[in-house]
Amino acid sequence: MPKHIYRYQPDSENRRKSLANDKVWLCSPDQYNDPYDCEFRVSDASVETAAHKRLAASFKAANQQMLAVGCSKASELVQNALSKIRGWRQLVKVCCFSEDPNSMLMWGHYAGNHRGFCIEYDLEDPKADQFRTKLYPVVYSDKPYDLTPWAESLVNGSLAFNPELPTLGLIHKFKGWEYEREWRVLSVSTDVKSDHDWPAPTPPRVFVGSKMEKANKQAFRDICEPRGIEVLEMHRAEDSFKLLSAPFS
Fold first, then answer.
1. What is the pLDDT along the chain (249 residues), one digit of tens a residue?
2. I want to staple 40 with a disulfide (CB 3.0 to 4.6 A). Which of 62, 169, 176, 179 is the partner?
3. Buried b (16+ CB within 10 A) or exposed e, 71-80
4. Left, alpha or beta for 7 (phi > 0: left; psi -120 to 50: alpha)?
């Protein structure tokens, strides 16, 4: 786990209010720009086959008609269970962070084309305990995470329910997003909830974009400095395609 994580945001009244009140926004994966966000795969056919094999092994003496009825019922149960598993995506709320506060692409994509801001959170701060318990690194891959082996193990009578396996399905992303170096907070409830804010530790620093207007930069100073939060400005390097931060001038 890194010492710091960073939250890129466009400049808006709601975002400023969240900063002032030590909140972050948890929202549905549907709100993000990745159509596969929090997607995972489960093979219905493989799980059904596992259920039928277990029935066949358990009822060797049963006639074929009884076995067919049992397999039909098993298929129905499997489909209901898999439908609930796929519904987990609707129960999760996500907030995304990065390890890098100087990413040219992140400033362009998520911070209002360099007119927004980026918040630093110190994960070693004792007040960040709640963050750490729900924070996961994103795993970048060519394919969505496959929960089929886990689902088959449940069908085959495994009593070891490992909640980390479903979580793995929620943190795999297409490797084309690797530049984001993402960590994410996951909040999973037992029923579908609206997007909502969530308590965050007071950040030690806030970075304002290189294209932010001077009056808006001053507004961030007014929010941050009375609370002991340092405000830094992003600048373009003169001799390379890099962004550099410096104390507010």
1. 899 999 999 999 999 999 999 999 999 999 999 999 999 999 999 999 988 888 887 776 667 777 788 888 888 888 888 888 888 889 999 999 999 999 999 999 999 999 999 999 999 999 899 888 999 999 999 999 999 988 888 887 776 667 677 888 899 999 999 999 999 999 988 899 999 999 999 999 999 999 999 999 999 999 999 999 999 999 999 999 999 999 987
2. 169
3. beebbeebee
4. beta
Distance CA(154)–CA(95), nearest Å, equals 30
Tell me how far apart the alpha carbons of residues 71 and 225 are, in angstroms, rounded to a whole number.
Answer: 67
**Residue 163: what residue type?**
P
Is residue 209 within 8 Å of 104, Cβ to Cβ? no
Q: Can you give the three-state secondary structure of the chain, one letter per residue?
A: CCCEEEEEECCCHHHHHHHHCCEEEEECHHHCCCCCCCCEECCHHHHHHHHHHHHHHHCCCCCHHHHHHHHHHHHHHHHHHHHHHHCHHHHEEEEEEECCCCCHHHHHHHCCCCCCEEEEEECCCHHHHHHHHHEEECEEECCCEECHHHHHHHHCCCCCCCCHHHHHHHCEEEHHHHHHCEEEEEEECCCCCCCEEEECCCCCEEEECCCCCHHHHHHHHHHHHHHCCEEEEEEECCCCCCEEEEECC
